[in-house]
Amino acid sequence: MTIALSGMTLHTNNDNEGSWSGTDDADDYNNAVQGANSESWQVSKNSTETGTLTKSSTLPTSRGLFIFWMSSNLAPYYTDIELLLESSNNNDKVFTVANSTNKAIGGNFIASAIDYINKGTETGTFVPANFSELAITVDNSSSGNIRSVINNWIDAMYYGVGHTVTGTTTTDKLFNEIALIDDGDSNNKYGVVWNYNGGIYSQGDITLNGTALTSIGEIVTFIDNLNGYDTYNLTGTGTVTLLNTSLIVAGSAALDIDTTSMTSFSMTGGAISNDGTTDIGSGQTLKGVVLTDRGLTSIANTAESCTWNVSDTITVTGILNKCTLNESVASTAVSTTSLDKLTKNNFVSDGTGYAVSLGTIASTQAMAWDNTESDYASSDGSTGNETIAVTVNSGITLTINVSSTGSTPTIHKSGTGTVNVVSGAVTLKMVVKDQDNADVENAYAYIDDGNTAPFIMNTQTNSSGEASVSHSDGAVTGSTWRVRKYGYKPFVQTIDIGGLDITIPITLITDPQQK
Predict the structure, then answer these.
(1) Is the pLDDT of residue 338 over 80?
(2) Which of 61, 14, 29 is nearest to 158 (CA)?
């Protein structure tokens, strides 16, 4: 099975289009980017001429591109080239698609992408659904004395938001396979994605709906052009694997990534630059990815060993593990409801803002902190540059247990509650499985030191069979670790707690007498 593309609709291929006026030559044979012909016309020296095509299409009304292929031998001479899209008389939009400083259209066919929703100069009210006529004007009024010959060609025109990808990749080059269909087939020159010297370029959205779409080691650049999207979308409902693939955004454009509706998504290695928003869904993973600039990110599952440079706020409802957050430009680098969701990360301040915002704490509780930080305020206060910002309600105590591998955070506290920061905490963890190596959920897990407290741990295992606690009361000789669940023989073991994190695997054996 191979991939297939949808999402772009042909307005005209200009092979033998009879609805043009204002051009003075027949369709030109043997000079076309798609099919056999293109609309050809001559713009004389020191003149301005317009070609008008009366043809209707129902353009998308909330988001979309109009893409047209054009070639002009007047690039050294023209002042500008304009495209007009009209929905009815005096209801139109005009776009400058090339000018004297940006020769965006030259002797080779170029696909110009027009964001007709957000760009252009409007007269009246342009209604995309009622699009009925276009005009292309070449201002050659300052050319000087040049030879007057056929010098402009207009070819295929498409509209849509970009490509929707279905099917399954046959190689590990997802984006190159998209380009081969878009740009490699002379019968389908959409002008959205192309391969140039091994690099992949896009000027449209990409929606990934395929069952197994894999990209390994590709570089994809979303371009910044005169009238195209300011923000691209990468989204979908499919199964997607990116390995050492980089998503680059040129110029001042941005890329919004939303994988929350995908059946499966993982991105390992590679990079994302100029990310606008990155929304990673539950059960999905970023690992070892470098994200640069503006990364307003939501992590619902796991981001591991990633680096965010000069990012916006990262909202963590899953786990952020072993990541670097380098000089966030936001008022807070990470927003989360629990420090337990942040494990072994490194926060580097740009001199402003907090590393973490915890919001409001309304119940007495303890959280673990095993992250490191640098260049944040060196003492608790209200400078706006402390490590952790938190509001603690009246009568409530928040205890932050700092592990032996973490640095002691400074606190910006609002509210009349109390924050206690306890250094030197260690993590005590049980991983409980049955004799078939399956995770055991909802087993009762206890650690009893028999001295300072009735229990160091008193909880149940999660869906992964894990239970953990931060312990900051020093070494314990002879602590008792217990696990029990109906249907299994109970587990009891005596363990000395020192100054290091402890993780012990526990196997529960089925008890036939309880079945």
Answers:
(1) yes
(2) 14
- pLDDT, tens digit, for every residue of 175-193? 999 999 998 877 789 999 9
Residue 165 near residue 5 (C-beta atoms within 8 A): yes
- Mean pLDDT over all residues of the chain? 92
**Rounded to whole angstroms, how far apart are CA atoms 138 and 406?**
65
- Report strand pairing: 80-88 vs 91-99: antiparallel
| C-beta separation of 355 from 376 below 8 A | yes
Is it true that 3-158 and 426-514 share their CATH fold?
Answer: no
For the chain, what are the domain ranges? 3-158, 162-357, 426-514
Give the span between the Cα atoms of 18 and 166, in whole angstroms.
35
User: What six digits make up the tokens of 279?
Assistant: 């929304």
Residue 297 is encoded by which pair of tokens? 């990110």
- Tokens 């007709």 correspond to 116
Q: Is the pTM of this model over 0.90?
A: no
| Residue 220: closest CA among 162, 149, 279, 298 | 162
Reported as a single tens digit per residue, the pLDDT across 401-415 is 888 788 999 999 999
**Which tokens hold the place of 173?**
């080059």
What is 3-158's CATH number, 3.20.20.10, 3.90.20.10, 2.60.120.260, 3.30.230.10? 2.60.120.260
For residue 496, with 0-12 CB atoms within 10 Å meaning exposed, 13-18 middle and 19 or more buried, which class applies?
exposed
Strand partners, 356: 334, 388
pLDDT given at position 501? 80
- Please tell me whether residue 120 adopts helix, strand or coil conformation: coil
- pLDDT of 18-43, one tens digit each? 899 987 676 777 789 998 889 998 99
The answer to whether 167 and 3 are in contact (CB under 8 A) is: yes
Contact 283, 265 (CB under 8 A): no
> What mean pLDDT do residues 326-334 have?
92
Residues written for the chain: 515
Domain 426-514 top-level CATH class: mainly beta
CA dihedral for 339, 342, 346, 349, sign (positive or negative): negative
Token pair of 167 as six digits: 């099917």
Q: Which residues pair with 389 in a beta bridge?
A: 357, 412
